[in-house]
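Priority: medium. Attachment 1 of 2:
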């Protein structure tokens, strides 16, 4: 196992699909470091620039990077350590006990992520001239859930690394046009986030097929069904929904107990520290 990454000392490997480590800086602060490859070994400069912009995002739902640097042939992105786990890990642990995430907890989580995406999609950064930023590989494993019910979106600023030999997104959560080789767009992120909602409610992976909101039943609030149908439209031209509109739609039905329900679910499932990490 690695003992160091750049100036950081590795403490242990973190569970998850992305290669990640709990590490400690020279000042003694704990952080998470995730390592990303790039298609053909290129695009690191653009990714570093966009990750740097993310450091200035003023939104609690974004996991603001501490640093981004090259570590051999990979890009290392360091963020503050969060006690908890990803939404994917939480759902898996609940599923193993025959339980499911309460709908009000899921609605709260999706609202927070939609808000983070709205900030990214509407970006107009005067310092770099960067306008608009997409995620491009959103899935339950890119949504960090703190033990206190807080939500942080991981992996923002890395869209330029998405592709073969780089970051390979989960096809089930990837917009149809992107799966077909098309470009990454804000509407593609909308599809991915709505697919996350669909998968958690349906209690199964999307699988890359058209996702029918009606199949989810009465558990989905009526006020969300139209937005979810638009967000999950197979054709990009029919997916006329912004992240801000999605955030507002979910915000309108968010139960005040949503975060508390998420906190309770995390306390029952335990943090990733309670599960063995890969060697």
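Attachment 2 of 2:
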């Amino acid at each position: 196992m690695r003992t160091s990454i750049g100036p950081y000392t590795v403490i242990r490997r973190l569970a998850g699909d992305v290669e990640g480590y709990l590490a400690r800086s020279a000042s003694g602060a704990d952080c998470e470091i995730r390592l990303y490859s790039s298609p053909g070994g290129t695009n690191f400069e653009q990714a570093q620039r966009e990750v740097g912009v993310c450091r200035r995002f003023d939104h609690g739902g974004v996991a603001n990077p501490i640093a981004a640097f090259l570590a051999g042939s990979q890009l290392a992105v360091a963020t503050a350590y969060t006690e908890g786990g990803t939404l994917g890990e939480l759902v898996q642990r609940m599923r193993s006990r025959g339980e499911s995430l309460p709908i009000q907890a899921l609605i709260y989580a999706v609202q927070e992520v939609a808000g983070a995406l709205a900030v990214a999609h509407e970006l107009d950064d005067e310092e770099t001239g960067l306008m608009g930023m997409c995620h491009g590989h959103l899935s339950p494993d890119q949504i960090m859930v703190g033990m206190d019910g807080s939500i942080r979106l991981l992996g923002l600023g890395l869209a330029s690394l998405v592709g073969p030999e780089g970051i390979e997104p989960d096809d089930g959560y990837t917009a149809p046009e992107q799966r077909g080789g098309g470009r990454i767009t804000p509407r593609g992120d909308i599809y991915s986030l709505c697919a996350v909602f669909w998968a958690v409610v349906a209690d199964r992976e999307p699988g890359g097929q058209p996702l029918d909101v009606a199949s989810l039943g009465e558990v989905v609030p009526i006020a969300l069904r139209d937005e979810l149908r638009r967000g999950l439209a197979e054709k990009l031209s029919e997916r006329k929904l912004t992240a801000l509109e999605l955030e507002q739609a979910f915000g309108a039905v968010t139960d005040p107990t949503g975060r508390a329900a998420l906190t309770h679910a995390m306390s029952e499932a335990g943090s990733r520290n309670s599960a063995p990490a890969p060697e």
